[in-house]
Write a structure and sequence with these properties.
656 residues, alpha+beta, Glutaredoxin, Glycosyltransferase, four-stranded mixed sheet, 24 helices
Length: 656
C-alpha cells in the first residue's frame, strides 16, 4: 500500500512511495502532525542517484521492523535535497557541526519545532563495527522522548542556537595577498602524482581548476596552469571519465581516479565540460576538446529534455549493483569488436580477465603510456561498445530540471559553441536559454521543473548560475544581455544581506530554523561565489557603479568569512582577479559581426568581455539600457569599429 509520497513529483520521493514507512513530504502538515501526536520528527534527506541512499532504503526503509518503529514513535519526513537545497543546507550544517563531516543520506531527528538533537548520515539496520544501527537508535530515542523529553528539547534548542549564530568576520581584505594565499592552499593540497586535491575520496572540483587556469593567465604563474592541466589530464585518463559513453562520474573512491562512485550529475558534467573547454582555448591540446565534447555529447544524448532543459543525473546502480552498467570483460569486448580489434582495445583500456573492479573492468587509460596517441579507429570502437552497452538494463534517470544546474549547462554549451565554432552546441544553448526564461506564476524564476510543471521558488544559486549562463550565452550570441542584469537585480532585491553577502533563500521564502547563508564552495560553487562572479562581470560590462559596490561588498564578505581557508571560495575569487589584474571590455560596432571577431571569440581571454552593437533598432536600445556608456558610440567612417573600454570609458576606435 502506498504512502503519501505517491502524490509527489520528485523521482526520489516517488522511489519511497511504496515503503511501509508512513513518509510525509516536508511541510507544515508533517510538523503539525508531530505536534498533535507529541512525537519527534525523523528526517531523511537524499537524492535519486545516490548509491548509499538506495542501500539504506533497501536495508531499513523497506524493512517491516524499522517501519513499525518509525510509524509508532515518530513522524517520518522525506526530502529530496535537489528539490529543497535550503532544507538540506540547514541540516547538513547541523550534521557537520556535530560530527565534523556530512553526506547523504542525511539522517536527522528533531522536535516538532524543527530543532534537531541528532544528525548523522548512512546508518546500517543493526549496529556493526562500532557504528550504531538505525533500530537501536530509534529505540533509544523513543525511550528518551518518553522518559526524559526535556533533555532532548534542551539539546535541540542549543543546537538551533549554535547554528544560528553569526559567523565572526575576520580582518582579511580582498587583494593580491588574499589571492596568493588561496593559491598556496590549493598548491599544498595538490596531489602531484595523480592530480586533483587531497586523497580518497577525490572530487573533480572543476571550479578550483577554472580558478587556477584564470589565475595563471592573468598573473603569469605557470605552476597554477601546470597543476590544473595535470589534474584535467589525469581525470580524463581515469575511470571517473566514461571512455565508452562520455561524461564524468561524481567522484573517485581512490586517489588514482580509477574507481568512481558511478552516479553522473548534470552540474559536475557542465562544470567539467566548461573547464576542459577553457583549457583547450588556452593550449589547443586535442584531448581537452575530446573530453569537453564527449561530456557535452553525453549530456545531450542522455540528459536532454524535449523542453530544451536538462535532467539532473543518472543513477550509479544497475540491476541492484553499483557500476554494473559500466563494466566490461575481455570476452564481451572481443564479441563486439572481433578478436584482434578487441584484444588491442582491451590492452589500451586496461580491460583484463582479472578485472580492476569486482572481477570486471572499468575502462581507463591510466596504464597506457601512449594515451595521447590513440588510433583513429578507436572512436568507432567506442561507439560500437556504447551501442552494445545500451542493451543492458537502463540506468534510472532523475528527470527534475533544476534551474541552477541548467544555468551551469548554459555556461558550458555557450563556451563550447564559441570555442569550437559549433552550430550544434549553439542550437542546444539557444533552446536552453529559452527554457531558462520560463517563469512561475508569480513572474519569478522557479527552482525546479518536473512533468511539465514548475515547483519551488528559485534560490540564490538558481538566479546566479542562470545569470552566469546568460553571460556566456551573450558572448557567443552577441546579444541577449538583458537577462544578465534582470537576474542580478532580483538577487540584490530579494537575497542580499545589508551586513554583506547573500542569503540562500529569498526574503519571502519559507522560514526555517535559520536563513542559510553559504560561504564556501562545495561540490559546486556556492551561491555567494557565483554572485561575486556575476557582479564582477556586470561591473566590467556596464560600468555602473552599483555593480562595483555590489562586487566590493560581496568580496569583502567572502574574504572576511574565509580568512583561514581562502581556497574554499575559489570560484568567487575569479571575481577578485579582475580587481587585482588589468581587464578590458571590447565593444564592436557593426551592421553584422565581422570575420575578425570570430578569432577573438575563440581565444582564451578571461581578462576580456565582449559587447556587440548593431547601430539603430531595438537591439541597440536594449544594449544601451544594459550598458549605458554604449549609447552614443558608433562606427568610424561607416566601417566595423572596435573600442577597448574599461570602467565604462572607451578609447579611440580601431579596425581589425
Amino acid at each position: 500500500m502506498s504512502n503519501s509520497l505517491i502524490k509527489e513529483k520528485s523521482p526520489y520521493l516517488l522511489e519511497h512511495a511504496e515503503n511501509p514507512v508512513d513518509w510525509l513530504a516536508w511541510g507544515e502538515a508533517a510538523f503539525e502532525k508531530a505536534r498533535r501526536e507529541n512525537k519527534p520528527v525523523f528526517l531523511s534527506i537524499g537524492y535519486s542517484t545516490c548509491h548509499w541512499c538506495h542501500v539504506m532504503a533497501r536495508e531499513s526503509f523497506e524493512d517491516g521492523k524499522v517501519a513499525e518503529l518509525l510509524n509508532r514513535h515518530f513522524v517520518s519526513v522525506k526530502v529530496d535535497r535537489e528539490e529543497r537545497p535550503d532544507v538540506d543546507a540547514v541540516y547538513m550544517e547541523v550534521c557537520t557541526a556535530l560530527n565534523g563531516s556530512g553526506g547523504w543520506p542525511l539522517t536527522v531527528i528533531m522536535t516538532p519545532e524543527q530543532q534537531p538533537f541528532y544528525a548523522g548520515t548512512y546508518l546500517p539496520r543493526e549496529s556493526r563495527g562500532g557504528q550504531i544501527g538505525l533500530i537501536p537508535l530509534l529505540k533509544a530515542v523513543a525511550e528518551k522522548w518518553a522518559l526524559d523529553r526535556p533533555s532532548l528539547l534542551k539539546a535541540g534548542a542549543e543546537i538551533r542556537d549554535f547554528i544560528s549564530r553569526e559567523l565572526p568576520a575576520g580582518n582579511a581584505e580582498p587583494g593580491e595577498a588574499f589571492l596568493k594565499r588561496a593559491v598556496e592552499q590549493l598548491y599544498s593540497s595538490y596531489d602531484g602524482e595523480y592530480g586533483g586535491f587531497g586523497s580518497a575520496p577525490k572530487f573533480p572540483s572543476a571550479h578550483n581548476l577554472i580558478f587556477l587556469l584564470r589565475y595563471s593567465q592573468l598573473s603569469g604563474d605557470k605552476k597554477a596552469r601546470s597543476i590544473a592541466e595535470h589534474s584535467l589530464k589525469q581525470m580524463y585518463r581515469g575511470g571517473i571519465y566514461d571512455h565508452i559513453g562520455g561524461g564524468f562520474a561524481r567522484y573517485s573512491t581512490d586517489r588514482e581516479w580509477l574507481a568512481p562512485h558511478f552516479e553522473k550529475t548534470l552540474y559536475d558534467n557542465a562544470l567539467l565540460a566548461f573547464a576542459y573547454t577553457e583549457a583547450w582555448q588556452d593550449g589547443h591540446l586535442a584531448l581537452y576538446r575530446q573530453a569537453a565534447e564527449g561530456t557535452l555529447d553525453y549530456c545531450l544524448r542522455e540528459l536532454s529534455s524535449p523542453e530544451g532543459g536538462f535532467y539532473s543525473g543518472q543513477d550509479a546502480d544497475s540491476e541492484g549493483v553499483e557500476g554494473a552498467y559500466y563494466l566490461f570483460t575481455p570476452e564481451e569486448v572481443k564479441n563486439v569488436l572481433g578478436e584482434d580489434e578487441g584484444r588491442h582495445f582491451c590492452e589500451c583500456y586496461d580491460i583484463t580477465d582479472e578485472g580492476n573492479f569486482d572481477g570486471k573492468s572499468i575502462p581507463n587509460l591510466l596504464l597506457n603510456n601512449r594515451w595521447l596517441l590513440l588510433p583513429e579507429g578507436y572512436g568507432e570502437y567506442r561507439e560500437k561498445l556504447r551501442e552494445y552497452r545500451r542493451r543492458r538494463l537502463p540506468l534510472r534517470r532523475d528527470e527534475k530540471q533544476l534551474t541552477a544546474w541548467n544555468g551551469l549547462m548554459l555556461m558550458a554549451l555557450s563556451r563550447a559553441a564559441r570555442a569550437f565554432n559549433s552550430g550544434r552546441y549553439m542550437a542546444a544553448a539557444e533552446r536552453l536559454a529559452r527554457f531558462l526564461l520560463e517563469k512561475d506564476g508569480g513572474g519569478r524564476l522557479s527552482a525546479c521543473r518536473m512533468a511539465g510543471e514548475n515547483f519551488h521558488p528559485a534560490q540564490l544559486e538558481d538566479y546566479a548560475f542562470a545569470a552566469l549562463g546568460f553571460y556566456e550565452f551573450s558572448q557567443v550570441s552577441l546579444g541577449n544581455y538583458p537577462p544578465i542584469k534582470a537576474l542580478a537585480e532580483e538577487i540584490m532585491a530579494r537575497f542580499a544581506d545589508k551586513k554583506g553577502g547573500c542569503f540562500k533563500t529569498a526574503d519571502d521564502a519559507e522560514k526555517l530554523i535559520k536563513r542559510p547563508k553559504e560561504v564556501f564552495d562545495g561540490a559546486l560553487p556556492s551561491g555567494n561565489s557565483a554572485a561575486a562572479a556575476l557582479f564582477d562581470l556586470l561591473w566590467r560590462m556596464t560600468g555602473e557603479e552599483k555593480w562595483r559596490a555590489a562586487l566590493d561588498s560581496q568580496l569583502r564578505f567572502l574574504c572576511s568569512r574565509s580568512e583561514n581557508y581562502p581556497a574554499g571560495c575559489a570560484f568567487g575569487l575569479t571575481a577578485l582577479l579582475s580587481l587585482v589584474y588589468p581587464t578590458k571590455e571590447l565593444l564592436c560596432v557593426a551592421e553584422e559581426p565581422p570575420e575578425s571577431l570570430d578569432a577573438l571569440m575563440g581565444r582564451y581571454a578571461p581578462e576580456l568581455t565582449l559587447l556587440f552593437k548593431r547601430p539603430g533598432g531595438p537591439e541597440a536600445a536594449a544594449l544601451a539600457a544594459f550598458a549605458p556608456f554604449t549609447e552614443n558610440i558608433g562606427m568610424k567612417d561607416g566601417k566595423p569599429s572596435f573600442y577597448l573600454c574599461a570602467n565604462g570609458a572607451c578609447g579611440l576606435p580601431f579596425n581589425i
